[in-house]
Specification:
6-phosphgluc_deHydtase, iron, eight-stranded mixed β-sheet, Phosphogluconate dehydratase, four-stranded parallel β-sheet, EC 4.2.1.12, Glucose Oxidase, domain 1, globular, 4Fe-4S
């Protein structure tokens, strides 16, 4: 495998390291120095720690005779992807005991299902839940009796939140253990078709419900390549979970073997200071993850999340950096919504192991970056053998399905899946990997809305009959917590299928499952922060050009007053987050309350 990094990526890494020199040094200097020493912990503290254990185990922990591993879990059974975690602490304890180590559940974190809250009031809490999860992880880890910790979290804001919280304890090693995707059910394209029919009143609620139940039908992550599965791929690329095992099914024997192997790796890492999380998550690790995002056509949500992850590790990155990465990284996967197949087909084609291997060969991923396994990425990445009872791997081979996974020498497109959009309306991002080339340019009069339900109502009234740019403002983090606007996907898809040039411009987010329709999202400055989109009016001509990365209006906005700010609803717990909305950073800065200046 190649070890020479693409020159553009190497120069970008050097720029990031230079601009981040002070913040990275401050982060590292703030971490506790030297090995963990439980014998220095007070006796009462230790007695509380070990109260649940039998006497022999108490002595092992209190006298620091072997590693004591914490578990931070986001288990609940609202999330199908997290339901398998119910049994993980017991399994982890069994495998740790076999190694002479001990374990303890340090704490739990909230974990909401965005699939349940789409279009509902709870979605306004979704993005902020990431920082709540980070803080919750810190609370669990604050007991300061662990030599390392295991993170159990998969979906949307949860895995980034756990990682951000863990980086506050970067003097310890960490490993993620996922649960894997559910088995393939109704195809994602059939599901989307039924949703569009329902949006037009051509499918009943019962038909729609049956379709959804066939798509979401068992434990595991949803099978489309949205934010949850983008998390898993990026964690593989970071070497924080086994690089090649993200998409093994929950029922696979190898999934159980991966639990044992992950515990073994963490137990070993407790004796290697070089594998502390704060050291391991460096510029190489972060850029490898972002290359994986671009090469796989992953979720735009990570243009927000990984900015915050980087900041947690002391690195300063922005969307210009992501644009540079995307400009040279070839798109090598087609998984719905970027294609017709799901993540199980991707795994069968070679999965993250196959993608990592070809990107290392092409010089896009730094194969010398370390992993928590104690070996370099190039020497760790492997395909797991799903039918084996014990942990078994094989070297990554050529793709077994070129419609899903391709080598870097034969990409689906020469650049990555996300494009920076900028102009006199601000800066945003566009997931071009999911949009056909013929739909990547729209210049048309706009209709301006401040609530997604207004857009749906206008569609149902038959108001959209011409080329159109839908502008949905006051959906940013300061306005209402930046909800995902996935409920707009079916109706915008219907308009496009009718032959109308249509695009969306918003300071809100779209789901990681969204695609097909040209969308400039996460627009900064947001309307609430006096961004230009707050001055757009119905009929203004807006250009959304994903070929060139242009977001522009021909209207003169300089003399206009911004639109009135909608009243902020406080029901369903939203009022408690007002202080977060008042202080949150912009989307390009990570939409966080943890890293505001």
């Amino acid at each position: 495998m190649a070890t020479t990094l693409h020159p553009t990526l190497l120069k970008l890494r050097e720029r990031i390291e230079k601009r981040s020199a002070a913040t990275r040094a401050a982060y590292l200097s703030n971490l506790p120095q030297g090995p963990q020493n439980r014998t220095a912990v007070g006796c009462a503290n230790l007695a509380h720690t070990t109260a649940i254990f039998p006497s022999p185990t108490k002595r092992v922990i209190s006298l620091h005779k072997s590693p004591h591993l914490g578990i931070v879990t986001a288990y609940n059974d609202m999330l199908s992807a997290h339901q398998p975690f119910a049994l993980y602490p017991e399994l982890i304890a069994k495998h740790a005991h076999a190694l002479g180590a001990t374990t303890q559940v340090a704490g739990g974190t909230p974990a909401m299902c965005d699939g349940v809250t789409q279009g509902r009031e709870g979605m306004e809490l979704s993005l902020f839940s990431r920082d709540v999860i980070a803080l919750s992880a810190c609370v669990g880890l604050s007991h300061d009796v662990f030599d390392g910790a295991i993170l159990l979290g998969v979906c949307d804001k949860i895995a980034p939140g756990l990682l951000i919280g863990a980086l506050g304890f970067g003097h310890l090693p960490f490993v993620f253990i996922p649960a894997g995707p559910m088995e393939t059910g109704l195809s994602n394209s059939e599901k989307a078709k039924t949703r569009q029919l329902a949006a037009q009143g051509k499918a009943s609620r019962e038909t729609l419900l049956q379709s959804e139940e066939k798509a979401y039908h068992s434990p595991g992550t949803c099978t489309f390549y949205g934010t949850a599965n983008s998390n898993q791929l990026m964690l593989d690329f970071m070497g924080l979970q086994f690089p090649g095992g993200a998409f093994e099914l929950p029922s696979s024997p190898q999934r159980q073997a991966l639990i044992a192997e992950s515990v073994r790796a963490l137990e070993s890492a407790t004796r290697n200071p070089a594998l502390q999380l704060g050291t391991l998550v460096d510029s190489r690790c972060l850029m490898n993850a972002l290359v994986g995002l671009m090469a796989s056509g992953g979720s735009t949500n990570h243009t927000i999340h990984w900015v915050s992850v980087a900041r947690a590790a002391g690195y300063l990155i922005d969307w210009t950096d992501l644009e540079v990465i995307s400009s040279v990284t070839p798109l090598l996967t087609r998984v719905y919504p970027n294609g017709t197949e799901d993540v199980n087909a991707f795994q069968a084609a070679g999965g993250t192991a196959g993608l990592l291997a070809t990107l290392i060969d092409g010089g896009f991923v730094d194969g010398e970056a370390p992993t928590v396994w104690g070996t370099s990425m190039a020497n760790t990445v492997a395909e797991v053998l799903p039918t084996a009872e014990a942990f078994s791997t094989r070297p990554p081979g050529p793709s077994r399905n070129l419609e899903v996974l391709r080598p870097y020498t034969d990409p689906f497109q020469p650049d990555g899946g996300i494009r920076l959009m900028q102009g006199n309306l601000g800066r945003g991002v566009c997931k071009i990997s999911a949009v056909k080339k013929e739909h990547r340019f729209v210049e048309a009069p706009c209709r301006v809305f401040t609530d997604q339900h207004q857009v749906i109502d206008a569609f149902e009234r038959g108001e959209f009959t011409q080329a159109l740019v839908v502008v949905l403002a006051h959906q940013g983090p300061r306005a209402n917590g930046m909800p995902e606007l996935h409920k707009l996907t079916p109706i915008l898809g219907v308009l496009q299928d009718r032959g109308l040039p249509v695009a969306l411009v918003t300071d809100g987010r779209m789901s990681g499952a969204s695609g097909k329709v040209l969308s400039a999202i996460h627009v900064c400055p947001e309307a609430k922060a006096d961004g230009p989109i707050a001055r757009l009016r119905d009929g203004d001509v807006v250009r959304v050009d994903a070929h060139e990365g242009v977001l522009h209006t021909t209207a003169d906005l300089s003399q206009r007053e911004p639109m009135p700010t909608p009243a902020q609803a406080v029901s369903h717990g939203r009022g408690y987050f007002q202080v977060w909305r008042n202080t949150v950073s912009s989307a390009e800065e990570g939409a966080s309350n943890l890293f505001t200046d």
